[in-house]
Amino acid sequence: MTTPKFPDNFLWGGATAANQLEGAYNEGGRGLSVQDVMPNGLMSAPTPEPTEENLKLEGIDFYHRYPEDIALMAEMGFKVFRISIAWSRIFPNGDDAQPNEEGLQFYDDLFDELHKHGMEPLVTLSHYEPPLNLARKYRGWIDRDVIAFFEKYARTVFERYQNKVKYWLTFNEVNSIISAPANGAIFEDEIEVSLADKWQAAHHQLVASALATKIAKEINPDMQVGCMVISMPTYSMTPDPKDQLAVRDFMNENYAFTDIHARGVYPGYLKRHLREAGIEIKFGEQDARILKENTVDFISFSYYVSLVQAHNPQNYQTAAGNIFRGIPNPYLEASEWGWQIDPIGLRLVLNDFWDRYQLPLFIVENGLGAKDELIADGADSFTVADDYRIDYLKAHLQQVGEAIEDGVELLGYTSWGPIDLVSMSTAQMSKRYGFIYVDRDDNGQGSLNRYKKHSFHWYKEVIETNGASL
Ligand code: BG6
Questions:
Q1: Fewest 10 Å CB contacts: which of 169, 220, 358, 393?
Q2: CATH classification of the domain holding 352
Q3: Got a GO cellular component term for this one (predicted)?
């Protein structure tokens, strides 16, 4: 193992999403988002109205407590903080004529607070939280109209924050839409949705992402726009060439999204895949040109698990994961939620993306969801002895160091959920990722007080030494 050497301007920090921490779902003129009716996680059925059991409605009350929380991130030395803008705070119904000034002002204040502490905001435009109206009045992203609504939203926030935000991501985990259509405001439990519809929605998001990149550059060429995907190195179950081919097919379905974002054209393997599935994507007249002319500045991704695939996966049991699943890997241990832990996989992903695109990369999510126990720390304080989290992050960051040594150009690393927040896949509070513990349980009970875990002090030292302490 080499001693990791991170670049001098490396962006260390943490990543969050509005729907998982802001709360205040009906304050400040905000409209409902799809998450407000999904009390059991992204892959579950929506309810007709928001229900009390939905922990995301209150989140961790970041909306009211963000100055205190950002001060804690600053204490760890964060250089960057990833948030998402809740689209429904800006355009409450998605299709409104005018933006909501109170929503715009909230993010103005939040960005000012970050800059006060010398932190760079990294902002996702759409993190699994489109306005609910787009799902109920339209067919979500299956409808082409949604591109124009998104364009207007993107233009509004780019214009407003052009001097406050340099780094932008368009769609969180854009490659998840086929498996998790709620990402695209598509409720399969409420409308009939075919596979062709899902690919059409994916196409619309790809075009919208390219249009957002175009608009950003027109407004301020210094703004850097990236795509964001779930990354998953995938191993072959056996040396059988058929299994190897199955791995390639599986990876291609995901590479398609970065290929289109980075190269601006639909790759041949995707065209073939769609053709053989009998799917014909309807291209608008300008779509091919829009994709070609507006490729991204950098590639960002989340990394949690690696997968194993085979040509006959039905013969094996399935491993757990957030959206994509494979076959359990006997060489790897798993988290309490069954997600298999593979630090070397992160080095592989970094090298693969770098070799493929030669574009700067950004790790914008990585971390361990675990149950934490709050214990006494002196007379009147509490902490969590989360050495398991430190072990996980340390092993991953060491592999990041190896990848940098391999020659990969990496802008930064934001661990997922630096402060505990509500889980995306299970909507639980008990699945915690933070360096900061938030006192709230799965029933919504708790003081919402914040406590520093052991990992807080560990991460502070990692940042202070620019990774040399790893
Ligand atoms: C990513 C999402 O897939 O995984 C986040 O972008 C999510 O929103 C994270 O929280 C971890 O997943 P979970 O289900 O443990 O919250």
A1: 358
A2: 3.20.20.80
A3: cytosol
